[in-house]
Amino acid sequence: MKKAIYMITTLFYPSIGGVENHVYNLSREFVKKGYNVKIINPVINYSKTESYNLDGIEIHKISVGNKKNEEEYLKYKEKSGENILGMVNGYKRKYYYNKFKKDVYKYIANDIDNSGYDEITIHQHDFISSIKLSKSLAQKYNVIFTNHTGEFLFLKKLPFSNIPINLLTNHFKYIIAPSDELADFNGIRHNTTFSFLSNGVDVDRFNEVNGSEMNELRRKYNIPQDKIVIFSPRRWAPTKGIIYLVKSIRELKSENIIFMFGGNDYADYPEYRDEILAYIKENNLENKIKLLGNIDYQVMDKYVKLSDIIAIPSLMEAISLSALEAMACGKPVISTNVGGMPQIVKNLETGILVESKNEIQLGNAIDKLVVDENLRHIIGKNCRAFVERKYSWKSISEETELIYEKYKNKI
Q1: Which of 40, 91, 200, 235 stands the most exposed, by the fewest C-beta atoms within 10 Å?
Q2: Which residues pair with 258 in a beta bridge?
Q3: 386 in the Ramachandran plot: left (φ > 0), alpha (ψ -120 to 50) or beta?
Q4: What is the pLDDT of residues 154-196, one digit of tens each?
Q5: Beta bridge partners of 61
Q6: What is the side-by-side strand order in the sheet with 333-336?
């Protein structure tokens, strides 16, 4: 029997982030199980529609729109930001992808018609960006949705939020969410049609290294061996709270520290990026910071392993895959007390929790772990054991497959 899974997402490599990593790792597990997995990734004004193989996964880059569409889309990017107006423009930017619903629908329908599958599963990973596409697909197929997005949490804060959320999600047969907060559809859907299911971790790839292996990685990637390295693998978007982590550097009592930032080339919020870079320059922090750009996920584990502490300073967050990957490598995590993060970060057990938008608390937490090497070691061991027990991708894929079996489409 030929079985296929269509993973639909506007976010995929070469960009980095939790959604991209989630889709890739989950897809890879289902390839191991014998499924044909296809990632459907529309890109505005891409050079040409193409498909290629990545670790057994079919990647379909679908070129939609033209140069003019790209320019219009980028105008929304420029206006996106942390305030209410910026959030509204962020919604408009993501919603812009719906202009190309017919093109993507046609591509998927043709692929299904010509592939000879016996069963297919359609798994949507966008919230706003593909809402029209998923509603069209839902007229013919069962569609499963994973709710990754912080925009959902923003909606939940609005008065009478259940009404728009219901309109946006009532066509999905089942909703998965990687935190309790993102899985809060109580009063909106029947409680048998949604559930919490965490992100997972490749525990074989993300693992602990000894001191000599760490030093070798630092030599390879030109990172000083005599520094305490704090790594923040977050795209530079307002909800990720990077500006507060940068501001915390001025609050530190400890010396001999270097901060590494991955994701600083993320282009969706240029004003936010410029604000951070301006702060770094104005406060003469360049010698304490190493900007790594958008790191290829194939080497992300190396940067985690050569680090001492991982920082997740988000304003909104599900259960961060980056945090779980760090914990799998035995690294203590400093995180803000938001979203799903308290489900994995327990104070002085698997890391330290601080309040969001608080550079002073971030600085104090960093100082505490920097000066106490033994505490870092104890927390790191706790982290590895915790992830091995609860968050391997193998176990996550097995739970996901139970949902697939219930909502698969016979062809």
Answers
A1: 91
A2: 229
A3: alpha
A4: 778 888 889 989 999 999 999 999 888 889 999 999 999 999 9
A5: 41, 50
A6: 289-293, 257-262, 228-233, 309-312, 333-336, 351-354
pLDDT (mean) for 294-303: 91
Contact 39, 7 (CB under 8 A): yes
Q: What token pair was written down for 356?
A: 């969001």
Q: Are strands 50-54 and 57-64 parallel, antiparallel or unpaired?
A: antiparallel
233, containing H or E segment: strand 228-233
Q: Tens of pLDDT along 267-296?
A: 788 889 999 999 999 999 999 999 999 898
Provide the pLDDT for residue 87.
65
Please report where in the chains the tokens 């693998």 appear, as a residue.
233
Exposure string for 132-161, b = 16+ CB within 10 A, e = fewer: bbbbbbbeebbbbbbbbbbbbbbbeeeeee
Reduced to 3 states (helix: H, G, I; strand: E, B; else coil), residue 290 is strand
Q: How far is CA 25 from CA 127, 200, 301, 393, in A?
A: 20, 8, 13, 7
Distance, in Å, from the CA atom of 146 to the CA atom of 5, rounded to the nearest integer, reads 14
What is the C-alpha to C-alpha distance for residues 184 and 155, in angstroms, rounded to an integer?
A: 12
